[in-house]
Amino acid sequence: TALYVGTDARGGFLSWDGGTAWRELGKPFASARVDAVAVDPRAKCTIYAASGARVYKTVDCARTWQSSDFESTVTTLALDPQAPATTYIGNAKGDIVKSVDGGVGWRAIARLENRVKRILIAPSTDGKGPVTIYAATQSAGIRRSVNNGDAWVDIRKGMEQYPGAFEYKSLILVPDRPGTLLYASKYGILRSVDSGSTWTPIALITAPGAVDITAIAVNPRRGDDIAYTTGSTFYKTSDGGRTWVSKKLPTKRLVTSLHVDAGDANTLWMTTLEVKK
After folding, report:
1. Mean pLDDT across the chain, nearest whole number?
2. What does each C-alpha distance from 35 to 5, 11, 46, 92, 145 come to in angstroms?
3. What is the pLDDT of residues 188-236, one digit of tens each?
4. First to last CA, the chain
5. Strand 74-79 relative to strand 66-69: parallel, antiparallel, unpaired?
6. CA angle 116-121-124, nearest 5°?
7. 81, 123 in Cβ contact below 8 A?
8. Residue 239: HSE in the Cβ half-sphere, 13 Å Cα cutoff
């Protein structure tokens, strides 16, 4: 299992042996914040990393890096799984910027005027047609493009009936169910099975809006296996949300992300942040 982690002030790290040993991403990130990392699915030594208002790229497994500069902090990045040389970034101003040549040239394709928190790209069902792109903002819902970013549709209308739903916490794809998304917000967790056109809430143990969800994950091979965290508790369901089990988290730090291991669904990775009072 290969793992890549960005930190708030100590750069980025990678592990190629399932987390047993870690190495630094490189000198450009020695004492910097790394907000996003993406790896070319066809060339594991090609890695992109966002730090401040720059996007760095390496093609030699983090030995050397080249960078592209932008006017605003880059908050998220994603590679087209069908054409990895096509790269999308989102920034703190709400812009979405695209490169089709591996990060050499860039052009703005959308201005959402709200901080972009996450860009997700779902491949087409046949692996050849246009991908579907989702861009989640901090407090203005989600946009969707079905034509490689040429046009965008506002899909937040289906969320308006849920108080706090525009306050983003997390957005993930359900890999074994094309068109299915899980979206965590101040309200709770919403699920869409039609690429974001409509949304329905997943019933949680806690009442809507009662807790702050910090991270969410799903088993890539079984979409009914969902996990999420709050400030102090870990929750898991194996039946799509009909029943839940909960456990106290093994740390007092704030959980910032969850990830189900691609090779072993019983292994869950968790990153945390020390909250200083």
Report:
1. 94
2. 9, 9, 17, 11, 23
3. 999 999 999 999 999 999 999 999 999 999 999 999 999 999 999 999 9
4. 35
5. unpaired
6. 155
7. yes
8. 6
Amino acid at residue number 144: R
DSSP 244: -
Q: What is the DSSP letter of 27?
A: G
- Residue entry with tokens 């812009």: 95
pLDDT exceeds cutoff 70 at 277 = no
Rounded CA gap, 169 and 11, in Å?
23
pTM across the whole model: 0.94
Alpha-carbon distances of 154 from 96, 114, 175, 228, 261, rounded to whole Å: 14, 13, 23, 26, 32
Token pair for 198: 């409509």
Of 150, 153, 157, nearest to 134 by C-alpha is: 153
* Alpha-carbon span 1 to 259, nearest angstrom: 12
> What are the DSSP calls for 71-133, one per residue?
SS-EEEEEE-TTSTT-EEEEETTSEEEEESSSSSS-EEEEE-SS-EEEEEEEPPTTSSS--EE
Query: Tens digit of pLDDT for each residue in 89-115?
Result: 999 999 999 999 999 999 999 999 999
